[in-house]
From TrEMBL:
The keyword NAD does not apply. GO terms for cellular component: endospore-forming forespore. Keywords: Capsid protein, Virion. This is CotS family spore coat protein. Gene3D superfamilies: 3.90.1200.10, Phosphorylase Kinase, domain 1.
């Protein structure tokens, strides 16, 4: 019988226990105990320790994971968790409305990314991953093409910001959120225009066309919860959502997330080692670095919050809306310095 681990603080409900027991039975493993870790389960068995994950849909994602890990292992890239088939040779188990699949358990910790050194080491891992997937056979993978016409997207989003501004200005009564959003809308509109101008004057379309032709694979969710550190090695997990995209978008999203952390605060001197760690393994051209800057600095979150407020009318409390807005605008001035320092870095190349 399955036992809860005393080390786990997340309760496992009886329905979950039943699901886990029946799923693991199809793998032929004898459970000793189980722990819930985020949305997955650490299952300790007589035969070893495994990671059981569930999802409501996405059979092709699991198949992608199996094929991808096998192909990566063939070329010597071992920094991923191996997928495990059921005793009958299936990729996953069906239980009620769920699909469950099993991988080996990597005995490490989520990479906290609190220091520049950690952030740079993880960027190196991403570069190694990008190098590796470039060499594998992807003909059997079913992959979503996530390449976007970013100049067109940015233009549409900037038009939305103009629309949000008109909505606020036409209101008879405006509250604190409206006042604050309106105060910063012109500043961030100009920043969005800078992003657009950088893209329009770059080699964006050529780089994007090349990525589409080569079917360039990206992780799409490369952040601390999907990076494990075991002793001195780093591992990349959760390969279910791989997509075709620009590698500089993969790296750029990672950098943008990190820069919002209080330990980094949009200090380019802390972003530079991250970029250089990636480039050391997988060189980027000056043009690609320009594209990445445009993707990093566009006010994505400000635009999204405006859409939730003025178009979707999300039922958030005023306190929640203000908290989200304050988090977005707190680094606006520092971000200007980041942009200038980044541009100087590119020019010095």
């Amino acid at each position: 019988m399955l036992e809860d681990s005393s080390n786990s603080n997340i309760k496992i409900w009886p329905k979950e226990k039943k699901m886990i027991e029946q799923s693991m039975n199809q793998y032929g493993f004898n459970i000793i105990e189980v722990q819930k870790v985020r949305s997955a389960y650490k299952v300790i068995c007589e035969e070893g320790t495994y990671c059981l994950k569930r999802m409501k849909s996405g059979r092709y994602k699991v198949k992608n994971g199996f094929i991808l890990v096998q192909e990566l292992n063939k070329i010597g890239f071992k920094k991923v968790a191996k997928y495990i088939k059921t005793k009958d040779g299936y990729n996953y188990v069906k239980y009620s409305k769920y699909i469950l699949y099993l991988t080996e358990w990597i005995d490490g910790k989520e990479c906290s990314i609190d220091t520049t050194l950690d952030a740079a080491e993880c960027a190196l891992l991403l570069a190694e991953f990008h190098n590796a997937v470039e060499k594998i056979d992807i003909s059997n993978l079913k992959i979503k093409n996530n390449l976007k016409n970013w100049p067109k997207v940015f233009l549409e989003n900037l038009s939305d910001l103009e629309y949000y501004k008109r909505i606020i200005e036409r209101k008879r009564l405006i509250n604190e959120f409206d006042k604050t959003y309106l105060k910063y809308i012109d500043i961030l509109y100009q920043r969005g225009m800078l992003s657009l101008n950088i893209l329009q004057n770059s080699e964006y379309y050529a780089v994007s066309k090349k990525a589409e032709y080569n079917k360039t694979l990206c992780h799409d969710s490369f952040y601390y919860q999907n990076i494990l550190k075991a002793e001195d090695s780093y591992y990349i997990v959760d390969l279910d959502s791989i997509i075709i995209d620009l590698e500089v978008n993969d790296l750029g999203k990672y950098i943008r997330r990190i820069m919002h952390k209080s330990e980094f605060k949009w200090d380019f001197n802390k972003a530079k080692p991250i970029i250089e760690s990636y480039v050391e393994e997988r060189p980027l051209t000056k043009e690609e670095l320009e594209i990445m800057l445009a993707l990093i600095i566009f006010p994505h979150k400000f635009w999204k919050l405006g859409k939730k407020r003025y178009v979707k009318h999300k039922n958030y409390s005023e306190m929640k809306y203000m908290k989200k807005l304050d988090k977005i605008i707190q680094y606006i001035d520092i971000q200007e310095l980041f942009i200038n320092d980044y541009l100087e870095y590119i020019e010095s190349m």
